[in-house]
Design brief:
Length: about 230
């Protein structure tokens, strides 16, 4: 668990255009579920990728637990990410996909087994562990991708439109599952979506981006009540 702070953080892909993320200042509390919402192209993914270390911060800083991580490599940040497209290794089983994250950091075998079993239980993946992604549905792949992302006990959990490739019914059930899992883990979470319903039902607070600029950040109740 951790706090996150963006301090006047900007990203300019192209100096002839306004910054994709423009002087973003935002504090995220320990254990909070923060949703970044806004139309396509508003800078949500870029803001999240800057936190994960997948995109440079051109101006300003990002702090995790009060520590400046702006110059740290992605793998040294303890931020894990779930992508819209799942990004599972196609030739590995679910078990291997989940374990891979731990083998990479030289976790002892017995501990890997235990961690994989834990993640599988939390996400109801037990029956999928020996299947490859091609043998799974989209929703099942997404659960494996989530398992892979939490198995290392990250300080910060990032999700970029994780439900957008699922059908409407599955989106609703997976929404609830992610929210419950986040509360169980207590992990500080940043969740990107363009869907207001997702923002409203999942976030402790919602940060609204437009053209790279933070418009407002508040609880769903405050944000979406129209007196
Ligand atoms: P969102 O996630 O809200 O859809 P993005 O962060 O993907 O927004 O994009 C914000 C802006 O930055 C858009 O104008 C987009 O075209 C631009 N952009 C995103 N990624 C790149 C990139 N790799 N190179 C150049 N411009 C990019
Ligand atoms: P999102 O779903 O986050 O809006 P997009 O579909 O816009 O993502 O972009 C997909 C990929 O293309 C991302 O890796 C993004 O960084 C890149 N990208 C987006 N806009 C541009 C751009 N204007 N120039 C170059 N790459 C871009």
């Amino acid at each position: 668990m951790a706090t996150v702070e963006y301090r006047q953080a900007s990203r300019m892909y192209d100096l002839t255009r306004p910054p994709a993320v423009n002087r973003l200042s935002l504090k995220i509390e320990d254990g909070e579920f923060l949703v970044l919402v806004g139309p396509s192209g508003s800078g949500k993914s870029t803001a999240m990728r800057m936190l994960a270390g997948l995109e440079p911060v051109d101006e300003g800083q990002i702090l995790i637990d009060g520590k400046d991580v702006t110059e740290l490599r992605a793998r040294d940040r303890d931020v894990s990410m779930v992508f819209q497209s799942y990004a599972l290794y196609p030739n590995m089983t679910a078990r291997q996909n989940i374990a891979f994250a731990l083998e990479n950091i030289k976790t002892p075998k017995a501990q890997i087994k235990e961690k994989v079993a834990q993640a599988a239980a939390m996400l109801e993946l037990e029956d999928l562990l020996d299947k490859k992604p091609s043998q799974m549905s989209g929703g099942q792949r997404q659960r494996v991708a989530m398992g892979r992302s939490i198995v290392r006990d990250p300080k910060v959990w990032c999700m970029d439109e994780p439900l957008s490739n699922l059908d409407a019914k599955l989106r609703v059930s997976t929404r609830a599952q992610i929210a419950a899992l986040q509360r169980e883990l207590g992990v500080t979470t940043v969740y990107v979506t363009h869907d207001q319903t997702e923002a409203m039902t999942m976030g402790d607070r919602v940060a609204v981006l437009k053209d790279g600029v933070l418009q407002q950040v508040d609880t769903p109740t405050h944000l979406y009540s129209h007196p």
